[in-house]
């Protein structure tokens, strides 16, 4: 991508999209197109087509999506599969229609089977059953991956798909029920600290293991891939490091400086027992993450305090 290229970032207000904007600006890309939901409803096929025909972007970062944690995925499965399918199909097809040079589709590590061999390599896609709590979201993301692959095969497009691990960072969703585990813990420990609550209860047993990547590291990786990778194979983006949910809660507890007791509720779902990505491919291309968990959670907590 040259510095004058017209770049459309779909979902620029979200966790990932806002990181794309920050990193693109820092790298000297200033011809960036953004639209709020009020300006462009990505579920509206006609509106998306008209936008692409008017703007004709050179490159597209497709980070717009309906996302959430276990509770949100379980509560709104129809919305998760419908909205994500509509967003990705509208954007990918419109990108093809106006001749976009390259598109990056943002998937999710939940596309891999629930009991995938650890660490999860890219070739494990579609080799087993999915985690039931987020199956509709995962199926939508798999459809996006296959759509990119199919357009590349049939039309010779240059669309790549990346699979990030669990993300956190600035502009995260801190909703008390519908957020992902790390921002949910930040909110819970902060509110317990303010209220002088004697304990904080965390869902599940605390034993599942998760990998976390700071959103600005993901943005760096995606810009790196847009400039250095072409192919029909998906690419994992992660750290190669994992922590248990208990260890994660202890990190957040320390950052927030909550002094009460930490407890776990084993009657609540744990989700997938382990989710560690095999990042050998992207590491082999020359990219590795820079921001540690301690530093990243500290920045995220500062951001949370600004928005609450």
The radius of gyration is 19 Å
Structural class: alpha/beta
Strand content: 5-15%
The description of the largest β-sheet is: 6 strands, parallel
Q: What gross morphology would you assign?
A: globular
Order of strands, main sheet, comes to 2-1-3-4-5-10
Regions with little confidence, pLDDT below 50 for 5+ residues: none
Estimate the helix proportion, in percent.
Answer: 40-55%
Description:
The chain is of the alpha/beta class and 308 residues long. It is 44% helix and 15% strand. It is built from 10 helices and 13 strands. It has helices at 15-26, 45-55, 70-75, 77-98, 135-155, 181-195, 215-228, 245-256, 280-285, 293-307; strands spanning 7-10, 32-33, 59-62, 102-106, 159-164, 166-168, 199-203, 209-210, 212-214, 235-237, 243-244, 261-265, 274-275. A 6-stranded parallel beta sheet has the order 2-1-3-4-5-10, sandwiched between helices. The protein has a 3-stranded mixed beta sheet with strand order 11-8-13. The chain has a two-stranded parallel sheet with strand order 6-9. Helix 1 (15-26) links the parallel strand 1 and strand 2 (32-33). It is globular. The mean pLDDT is 95.
């Amino acid at each position: 991508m040259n510095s004058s290229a017209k770049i459309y970032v779909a979902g620029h207000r979200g966790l990932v999209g806002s990181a794309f904007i920050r990193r693109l600006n820092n790298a000297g890309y200033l011809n960036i197109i953004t639209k709020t939901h009020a300006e462009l409803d990505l579920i509206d096929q006609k509106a998306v087509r008209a936008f692409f025909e008017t703007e004709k972007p050179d490159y597209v970062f497709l980070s717009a999506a309906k996302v959430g944690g276990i509770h949100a995925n379980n509560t709104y499965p129809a919305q998760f599969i419908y909205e994500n399918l509509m967003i990705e199909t509208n954007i990918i097809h419109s990108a093809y229609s106006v001749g976009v040079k390259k598109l990056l589709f943002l998937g999710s590590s939940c596309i891999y089977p629930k009991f995938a061999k650890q660490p999860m390599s890219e070739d494990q896609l579609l080799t087993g059953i999915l985690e039931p709590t987020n199956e509709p979201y995962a199926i939508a993301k798999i459809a996006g991956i296959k759509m990119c692959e199919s357009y590349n095969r049939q039309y010779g497009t240059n669309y790549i798909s990346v699979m990030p691990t669990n993300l956190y960072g600035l502009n995260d969703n801190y909703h008390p029920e519908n957020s992902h585990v790390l921002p949910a813990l930040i909110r819970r420990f902060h509110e317990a600290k303010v209220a002088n609550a004697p304990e904080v209860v965390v869902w599940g047993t605390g034993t599942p293991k998760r990998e976390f990547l700071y959103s600005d590291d993901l943005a760096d990786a995606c810009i790196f891939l847009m400039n250095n990778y072409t192919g029909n194979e998906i690419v994992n983006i992660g750290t190669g490091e994992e922590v248990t949910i208990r260890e994660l809660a202890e990190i957040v507890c320390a950052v927030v400086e909550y002094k009460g007791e930490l407890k776990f509720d084993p009657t609540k779902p744990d989700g997938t027992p382990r989710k560690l990505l095999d990042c050998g491919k992207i590491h082999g291309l020359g990219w590795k993450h820079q921001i540690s968990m301690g530093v990243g959670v500290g920045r995220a907590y500062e951001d949370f305090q600004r928005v609450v």
